[in-house]
Amino acid sequence: MSESDPIIQKYAVEEVGASGHKSRSKYLSRDLSFMTIFTSFNTTQGTMTTFHEKAGFWSLCVLYAFFAFTNLISAVIVKKLGARLSLFIGAAPYAAFVLTAAFNSDVALIIVGAFVGIGAAILWSFLSFNAGEDMGFYSGLFFGIFQINGILGNVLTGALLNAGISQFYIFSILFVISVLGLILMCYLVDPRPSAALNNQEKNTDSMSHMIKETVKVILTDKRMVFFHPISLYSGFSNSLFLGLLPPRVGLAYLGWVLAVLGLAEVIGSLVFGKLADIIGTWPVMIVTLVTHAITLGLSFFFDVAEPYLWFVTMFFAGLADAGLNTSIYAILGSPNYFKLQPAYAFSGFKLVQSIAMAAGFLCGIYVPFTYIQYAVCLMWVGAVVFFALSDAIIPSDYNRTTIN
């Protein structure tokens, strides 16, 4: 999960009550708890295929496969569990995953990866329920704080690696950090259901109906059919940038290269988000696809380049990923795109994207690196073609849609 991880993308902070009694410090503390948890997890995910090689690829493959299919029923699970239990069950596997990475147990990594996928789907659904219409100050506060995790965790890892600290102690330190975030999150969350969750409980469809409608949207809705190449490219390219490129730089540069990726995610989110406000989402998508083309081109020189080019490539990868996520979520969330059931559109997108990520990590085990690069390039071409064609089936006023 690029972390600009797909799991967190729709999170906007829950609305302040009518009395306005919740303070900014309350939101700040809660946002810091999420940043702390994902500082550990995203760093672990980025280094997994370096430290654990084949088992790392398998664990990430299983993680995203379970996330994809649990996402179909996660809304019903959240409805049954309630607010506090949903948060704990959703977030606890992240800490367990970090701890498991400290040991050389392939079976444990894969099993815990499955639980992370399930928990991620539950957590993502809960956060989506608490997303308000107005992104406002509080969502901006969350987004800025959360994105910092990609920098802090990897800088810490880079410093520890350069100091000669072993794998066991690095992940043990990250585990302690994640547990602190988990405790803080459980302590701060209001045990009473939020208004958004209460409303969702009234409107949540049955499990079988949700699966049926999501699959129907994926297979028959022409807007989603034209969007599938973009979803597939988004997932498969993430497996290249997060799973295949980092191991090639070596331990001495690993943490620092991933920190640059995190920095680019922050910059890209701010820049592309602002551009979308000014010029609209579709032009931003075009700029994003061009940025992806540059990144893919640079990746072909990754094995023969000087170290500075590793940083340049990963910086462009971070910009490209941030831009694509910004564009995708703005398009799917637009009232001109899915007017009636946007939840099914998001669920369908997450299913297709996560399956593509799982397939990408699986290919990392058995398919030569160069072949995967060519496959990603072909997917990029498909994404460009279907993006261009989709203009014919989307309402004309959508081209003027901006993120407000």
From TrEMBL:
Q: Where are the transmembrane segments?
A: 57-78, 85-103, 109-129, 141-161, 167-189, 225-245, 251-272, 284-302, 308-332, 344-367, 373-394
Q: Which organism is it from?
A: Acrasis kona
Q: Name one GO cellular component term.
A: membrane
Can you say where in the cell this protein is located? Answer: Membrane
Keywords for this protein: Glycoprotein, Membrane, Transmembrane, Transmembrane helix
Q: Which InterPro entries match?
A: Ion_channel_UNC-93, MFS_trans_sf, UNC-93-like_regulator
Membrane topology label: Multi-pass membrane protein
State the PANTHER family in the record.
ET TRANSLATION PRODUCT-RELATED, UNC93-LIKE PROTEIN MFSD11
Which Pfam family, just one, is annotated for this protein? UNC-93
Query: What is the designated name of this protein?
Result: UNC93-like protein MFSD11
